[in-house]
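Protein in question filed below.

…
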Amino acid sequence: MNGLDGVTPSQQNRILGTSTLAFTVCFAVWTIFSIIGVKIKQDLGLNDTQFGILVATPILTGSLSRIFLGIWTDQYGGRLVYTAVMALTAVAVWMLSTVSTYEMFLVAALGVGLAGGSFAVGIAYVSRWYEKERQGTALGIFGMGNVGAAVTNFGAPFLLVALGWEATAQVYAVVLLITAVLFFLTTKDDPVTAERKAKGEKPASAFMQLTPLKKLQVWRFSLYYFFVFGAFVALALWLPRYYVGVYGLDIKTAGMLAAAYALPGSIFRAMGGYMSDRWGARAVMYWTFLASVVICFFLSYPATDYTIQGIEGPITFNLTISLPIFVALTVALGFFMSLGKAAVYKHIPVYYPGHVGSVGGLVGMIGGLGGFFLPISFGIMNDLIGVWTSCFMLLFLLVAIALLWMHFAIQRMERKATADQLAGLPEFPEMVEIHEPHHAAAEESARKRRTSPSAESSTQAVH
């Protein structure tokens, strides 16, 4: 039984399916530099820091644009905003094939990043088609569009080898433009926007949409998403380079193994939404952070040679994570990140039903900024420290901070809730006998103060 008046299950399914497909294409475009960036790095002779900046530049635009795109979605509706975002991005992707210098690649990459901003649009648009009890599952399914990163990591290397990186960018641009046209033709305004248009009401101002951003809770959700989404994007971009540098793999093999990480980080997001609806988003966040702390700890351990003094002399051995174990650990990390991504966004329509676009946009923006700053940090740490696993050391520190903040915030809320409950309970009879004389004396003293001449004169002076 549908909980929204005038909306049928078939309409919900069509909107969700079309929006998820559009987001998948947008996400594939958003991460295109994870593959063609490797070729550009070789052609231009970039160092790891320059490469990190290049692959992270689209993430910057996609992150910063999310809050504005989310607000505009709340104001003007997701159908119009989503279509415009895809059309503009298609133009920027085509422009990639026309530039030749590092600086111009950075400029073009800023336009490509608009594809990442589509997430805030889709979250606000899809949530308006579902009742609260099903929003977690619906948004989890929509979030499966993250699989676009796996599509790029798996398919783009073959296009790159067969056609060259310039033609690969052109193919992506054409596919995105076709997707924009199909989305506009097969969808319609969400119920909230349609009702507002029918009544002739003006949308709420951008300032009013930003009022929930004053709450610390919103920023705490943003930190969670900085890890579960920002680190996911960062690793999806960085892993092909990591596999080539650490394990000496070719770009096609490295891309497929990176896709093995990105795939569970996307397709299990729907499971995370369902689990959040059934067992609560808080429990899912605990599972995500605890598992990620353990996995990142093992991934951060660098290859090390040990020498110990044995009974018959020195014993030397090596501790290294083999390629199969590394792949398995990254797949597991991607799985738990997918659960966490859905759990974070389960909170937003529940706590802020009238500001899903602005709150979801801010959370998505902070998460996306993780996808921008982390690849740059990975490159800088490689150049300065010279240890490949330093990227996972940084992720371990990040998720440990998020886990601790979440745990202490929850404890504080539970203590406050318990104190409020106890304050509303009646006193025990024996305590009433003890406290009653004191209460009576306090009330008598207050009555005398109210009726005293000085009190009356004060009252008159006030009036």
Observations:
- The CA atoms of residues 26 and 115 lie 5 Å apart.
- Confidence is low (pLDDT under 50) at residues 454-463.
- Residues 390-423 form the longest helix (34 residues).
- The chain has 21 helices and two strands.
